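look at this record:
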Amino acid sequence: MELLKRQESWNITYNHALGETASWFFVQIRDHAKIYGRRDAKSGRVLVPPRAFSDQTLEPTTGWVEVGPGGVIEAFTIVYEPFNGLPNPPYAFGYVKLNNADTALGGFFRGVDLSDGAAAARKLAVGTHVVTKFADERKGDVTDFWFELA
């Protein structure tokens, strides 16, 4: 069977309103360098990033809970190929379950030498403790924070 190759380009700009919950979340990052989750009133779980409705009970979430700055790596990847709109490789991205949270938040990892992928993977292993760091100048975006090894 012949396997075909094709290069395709997708360049999509998408503007959307964040809504009340996500807007409040990003304002706290921008103005206070803090991350918050929303509590699922029925189960008590703290959802990060916050959602207006629980992903399990479908009930509205209630109450803000400050999470982090520490946490534990739940998943990671090291990227060595360029992707449009993302940082120049290599870079590491993953999901961290922050202290007081029950779900994981995606973000970039910094401060790990990525030139040796195997060595970097050992340092970024699932279960490794990290701490959230914030940019000095923040704009209310996911690039305003990152994770470093604790």
